[in-house]
Structures are given as structure tokens and as C-alpha cells.
Amino acid sequence: MTACRRAVIALGGNAMTGPDGSATPAAQRAALAVAAAAVAEVVATGVEVVLTHGNGPQVGNLLVKNEMAAAVVPPVPLDWCVAQTQATVGFTLADELDAALAARGLDRRTAALVTRTLVDPADPHFATPSKPVGRYLPADEAARFVALGQRWEDRGARGWRRVVASPEPRSVVDAPAIAALIAAGFVVVCAGGGGVPVVEGGGPLAGVEAVIDKDLTAALLARELGADTLVVATDVPHVVVGWGTDAARPLGRVTPAELRAHAAAGEFGSGSMGPKVEAALRFVEGGGERAVVTSLENIADAVTGDAVGTVLTTP
Fold it and tell me: How high is the pLDDT of residue 14?
């Protein structure tokens, strides 16, 4: 492989919470410090790094606050929750990464940018919301939010859960600002949670209540920034086919055609590995040099070589 010049690294949810899934401020900061140390290893190689991240647990916490305080203050819309959690995770990750870079004697700084992602108001996902967010509630409590215009579904014994649209990302509105920060020498944290979803309507851009898949936005951003490599960090070292069976096997170096065939055969869950595989495919099929899906501790090796993770390249 040729030396990587610019990499987009998409941090998964395991980089945002404690080992037990705890999302307390202390647990989140400790988890982000571990992620920052891994990212600093990549920066130390001289590669330009852009970081994206998840925000599911953080948005979930804000939605609980919305529910509990609904009789006191008006609930804030979902796009506001995405923006708020981008800022919270962004500044915390920037602090931890600045510290990790300084510990390695690297004269680099981090900038965090609240990022908007353009979606199509006619996207069919708006007509059939299916992405579950937040916690389960009994029917009478869910009814309060249905009255506010939210969509909730009966999920059986566990109760009712809110569902929202998950539209396709069309472009990252703030990609030029991200590029300018890279050119100025910053490591950039951006597009958290897939970005704040916005639509065009003939006037100013407007936020919409939706959740964009973070990995699909990372793939789009990587193409828009001309990155060489996309690394999708998750909690396993490889993409696995035959998961949960005696025939399970990890995938190493694969072609887009091979990985598409596995996806078409239903090998990857839509709520877990599926979007990560799709993001890797879109990046490489769209002209990117290589994409790697691997665990957080492997990201430095994933950027600099082909010895770890599931590596997707053009034939």
C-alpha cells in the first residue's frame, strides 16, 4: 500500500462509554482518554487525521431528561440533541487528544466543530420512521409525547419506544470548514452522530428531527475531503461471516465484490455491523483507496498497514 496522507477515523460507541456501558461524565471522559491515546499514535506518524464519533448514549440521556422535565420545560427537538451532544463529546475528546498529543511531544492541537449534514426532505425514510431512540415507556407516558407530534410504537412487553427517520446523508455542509482546519494544522473532531440533519427549503437551512447513520456520514465526509483511508473503529478486530455459528470466520483483505456478496447474503445485521460494512463499501466504491473495519486498539496499525482488521481495497 502507498503511505496514507489523510485518514478519517470513525469512532464507535465503545469509545464513548465505560466498559460496562456506563455513560456517566467520568466514565465517558475515561473512555475518550483511551480513544485519544490510540488516535495520537496515528497523528504521530504524520498522517492528517479527522475524527467522527457516535453519540447514541448521550442523545439517549438527553431524551430521558426531555421526558422527565416535559411538564416543566418544553422538550427540545432531536436535531438540537444531536448538536448538543456533538459539542459535549467534541470538546471532551479535543481536551483528551490535546493531552495525548502533548504527552508524545507533538506540537499539534485539536479543534471540534458542530457539523451539519444535508438530507433530502423527500427521503422515503421520513415517511416510514423506523430508527428507535431513547428508552421504553408505558403507553400513558408515551402518549404525552405523541401529543407533541412524536412517533412512538408499541414494542410489546417492554413498552413503547420512539422511532425517528434515518435519512441518507447527501453532503456534509461544513466540509469546507473542516478542510480549512486541516490545512491550518488541526486534528479535527466533527460530524458526531452523523451530523445535525438539515434540509434545504428555499431559505436558510433548517434542522429536522432525524438520526443519520454516523458511519455512512463518515464515508461521505472521507470522500469529500479526499482522504486516502477510512477506518471504522468498532468493538471487534474483524468483520466476521457466519457470526454465532461453528463456521464463523474473520475477513481479512477483501474486494468490494466479495464484501457486497456477503452483505447480500444477509451476513451483517442492520443494527450492528451492516452500516459499518456499507460505509466501507461506499468509500472504496466511490473512489477511496482503502477502508478498514477493526477494533479501537488497532487503528494506528490500520492506517499505516494492511496487517489488521478487515481491509477493503479496489482489485
Answer: 67
